[in-house]
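Re: that chain you flagged

S.,

Sorry for the slow reply, it's been a week of failed gels. I finally had a moment to sit down with the sequence you sent. For the record, here it is as I used it:
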Amino acid sequence: MTDTTNNNAAAPNFPEQVTGMYILARALKNIGIENVYGLVGIPITEAAYIIQGQGIRFVGFRHEQQAGMAAATDGFVTGKPGVLMTVSSLGFLNGLTATANATVNCYPMIQISGSSVREPIDLEQGTYEGLDQLNIAKPLVKAAYRVNRAEDIPTGVVRAYRAAVSGRPGGVYLDITTPALGQVMDHAAAEALLQQPVDLQPSMVPAAEAVERAAALLASAKKPAILIGKGAAQAHVEDLVKKLVETTGVPFYPMSMAKGMLPDKHPLSALSVRSTIMEEADVVMLVGARLNWLLSRGHGKWNQQGQFIQLDIDPVEIDSNRHIAAPVIGDLRSSLEALLTALEGKKMAMDAGWVPSLQAQSRVKNAKFAQRLADAVTASPMNHWSALSAAKKVMEANPDVILVNEGANTLDDTRDTIDMAMPRHRIDCATWAIMGMGMGSAIGAAVATGKSVVAIEGDSAFGFSGMDFSTICRYKLPVTVCVFNNGGIYNGIGEPLDKTSDPAPTTLDVHARYDRLGDAFGAKTYYVTTPAEYEAALAEAIASKVPALIDVQLAADSGKESGHIGYLNPAPLIDITV
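Prediction finished late last night. Pasting the structure tokens below so you have them in one place:
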């Protein structure tokens, strides 16, 4: 074996010799990675070519953050770690935002970044992109490792994979130094490093007494509810959730990215009566969901005498906000299987009127919501509701199309409007509610599944990642991007509070023509101003299965500040028409 650790090392004598970059590609292939997302540059350019040569799809982006969002989405929809590859220094930092977000949202993901030679970094002597990447990443990710020798690359890859998927999934950082990437080894010695890992994601079976306690509590409830989180969607346990709901008759409420685990229109869906569930349920079972801020941390409107059952793989999560009367610690498939067995023969004590009352409330609320959409159709220019009345028809007629969604009003209103019928078909900004995941997630969903994707974006949200629409076009992905243009963050009617001639901080450009960005990259493009135009354009774009961009023109006063700060939603002071 020849070990070269400097930038002036002789090139390997192919094919008898290979580099650490080849070993990395082979290690990824050996562990079953099918897609890598990234942006090339020093020191990973050649590695990307070699990865591609191994039959792994390398999807090149315009920004590392979006490549990371794609990798995270790949991890969510497949259950295997999505892989991001970046250059060192700022490229690493750009990608790290997505890896940190994956960790918070429990998406299995691995970020692999090249890094500079260690010695001048450790002595702070100043070197090319000399950032101590490992120590920066550690506080933000589930696990972090550094590889300094080519022969350790397969071990690093396997450890990163196991860390990403074991227990509660998350983002893992793998730092590979430039000397390790460039190190030369004999081909035969390199191949000998590869071993097939065994049981990468072992089952974690819950304790029998915990399962029995949970089953007894659920069966004793008078007004029970099952709350489904995106952890259940990521775990691919929709078959067991369906069996649990339908054998017990307990109503369910899905969190945003769990919509479609059972169809939103299922007779036991409590999607329209969240407040009633919170206020009246006496036992709530959390399945892959956390009592974080999205659920008022279990306080606020929640029944304070109510009890919780929580199915989670991480014991640290239990009692984080509310007392959990019946924790069940294990992987969701094992826990649900055990719970279903424990419920056999138990008689449910649920009040006979509980489900009918929820269904009656749902009918009333759904009718009012349908009337809101119907009334909005005549609005000119369009508002969010009139545009969504068109999108709802098309999306619900195409239930296997994956919906990516972000924005402020665009996010909230789309989530409320479009019913989902299939699991892992709604992807949004999730736990941290961050903007700027749209193009990356749309690409990751399309690449990982091969399915058509529609991204419904606010104009502000689209601005974070819009340049990666070119990546959609370059890879000819079946993705339709709809930009809801109301000319601003929340809306386009902001007025400066001082005497400046500058625009208000929340205003963008209601006259912007986002469809012309699509023209620049050869996509199908549409500019629509009515619900009928939007409905026809969206249906045609989905059917075409080619990249498409629809500029959905809204009125500048469509939308409001979504943090419920009343004084930021004044009556219009200026001409708000398009």
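What I noticed first: The chain has a mean pLDDT of 93.

Talk soon,
D.
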